[in-house]
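Hi! If you just cloned this repository, the fastest way to understand the data is to look at a raw example. We've pasted two of them here, unedited. The first protein comes first, obviously.
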Amino acid sequence: MTNKSKIRVVVAMSGGVDSSVAAYVLKKKGYDVLGIFMKNWHDTNATISKECPWLEDSYDAMLVAEKLSIPFQVIDLSKEYKKKIVDYMFDEYKNGNTPNPDILCNSEIKFDLFLKIAMDLGADFIATGHYAQIKRTQLNEKTFFHLLAGRDKTKDQSYFLCQLNQFQLSKTIFPIGGMLKNNVRKIAKENQIITAGKKDSQGLCFIGKVKLPDFLQQKLKPKKGDVVLIKDTHINYFNKEKANNYDALSQNYFYEKFDGDLVGYHNGAHYYTIGQRKGISIGGRKNPLYVLSTDVKENIVYVGEGADHPGLYRLALKVLKKKIHFVSESKTVLKNDNLKARIRYRQALQKVSVFQENNFYYFLFEKPQKSITSGQFIAVYSDDELVCSGVIH
C-alpha cells in the first residue's frame, strides 16, 4: 500500500470553500499537504466591489491552512498573469473577439506556472477545488488520463479545464470532483472551516467582478461610433442554399451600415460582444436591444430587437485546425456519432456533428445556437468526457 504521508500535494488555495475542503480531504486521507495562495492581480481600479479582494482571500486561505495545520505561503504571479492573460484579453477585444480568460488562466497559470512552482517544492501532485474528475486508463502499457465532468452537474467546471493536456492531468487531483456542492459546504461547516458560508467568487479569474468597459479602457480608449438597428426581416439565414455549406453556416453575419437604421451611439465597438444586452443604453423600444455583430475597423455596433432575433443564431461554427486541442491526444474521438458540445459555461450540452475541410474543423449543431462568438471556446464531450476544445474562429 502506498504511504500517502510521503506523497506531497500542493493545493491551490483561493480562500473559497471549494479549495478549503479540497485541502481538508487530502489532509484527512493522509497526504503531505502544502497550501499556496496565488496573488495574480491586485489592481482594483476597475472592480465593482470588494467581493473578491486578494488580501481578504489570502487571509481566509491562511486561516484555513492554520486550522488544518498545513504549511502555507503566498506567491506573486502578477507579472506573468498580466502578460499571459490580461494583455491577451486586451488584444482580443481590440481585434473584435471575445476571449475567455478563465480557461487561459487554468491552462497558462494554475496548471502551468503554478504546477512548475509546486514541483520545485517537491510536489508529486497539485490539487484544486474544481468540480471535475480524472479517470486513468491503460492501453498498450501506456496510461491515458481522461477529463470527466464533475458529479454535481449544476457546478461542473470541466469547461474551464478544456485546454489541459495529458501531463497536466497526470499531475492533478480534484478532491471534490465527485462531491455535490451542498455536501462540500456541509463538510466545511461540520469541521468549523471559516469559509463554509462564503459566497462563490464571480467575475474574471483572480480579478473578481469588474465593469468590463472600465477595465478595457485602461488600454483601449473610448471612440464614439454608430449603433445600427437590423430588422429581423433582413435576415434569411437558414435557407436551402446554405444547408450543405458548412463554411457559410459557420460565418458571422456581415452587415453594412445601409442594412439598418441609425438608432444611437456607443463609445467603442471593441467594448461589445455578440449577444450583449446591457450597456447599449438605447431605450424607447418594445423589446431590449441585443448586439448582433461588431465592426471594430469601422467602429459600428449592429443590434437587433428582442432575444429571439434571428441574427443571434447560427447552426454551425468553425475552428482552425491548429487551434483544436485534444485532451486525450486522440483525434478519432470526433468520429463518434454521439458527440455533444457547449460554447459557454453551464450551457446545456448540444448535439453536434464534426467535419473537417481544408484548414478547419466545422461543428454543425442539431439546433441553431445563440450568440456564437469569435474568441470563445467550444468544448466537445463524449458522454461525460471532455475530449477536445478549440477557439471559435
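Ok, and the second one:
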Amino acid sequence: MKRLFVGLLLSVLLVGLPSLGVSAEKPLTENQLAAAKVATVNLNTATVQELKGLPGVGKVTAERIFSYREEHGKFSSVDELLKVKGIGKKSLAKFRDLVSLE
C-alpha cells in the first residue's frame, strides 16, 4: 500500500505538475500544492483516514462522508457531497479536483 501511494505521488509530481501550470518562474498556489500532495481519493471506497487527507476535511467531516456513503450507498456525483453536513460549496471547491467516483 505504501509503495502504491509513493508511486502515485511521484506520478502526480512528475506528470501532473506541468498540467497544473507549474513552472520554475511561478510559485505553486495553495491548491496546486494540495493537488501535488494528495492523490485522487475515490469517494466510494475511501477510508476515513484517506478522506482526512483532503484539504479542509478533518476527522468529523471524514466520518460524516463515510457514514453518508454507508447509509445512502455509493456517491453518484461529487456534488452529492453537498448533502453531507459540514460540506458547503466553499469547502467542496477546496478538494473537488482531488476526488473521484471510480
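That's it. A detail worth noticing about the second one: Residues 2-100 form a domain with the DNA polymerase; domain 1 fold (CATH 1.10.150.320).
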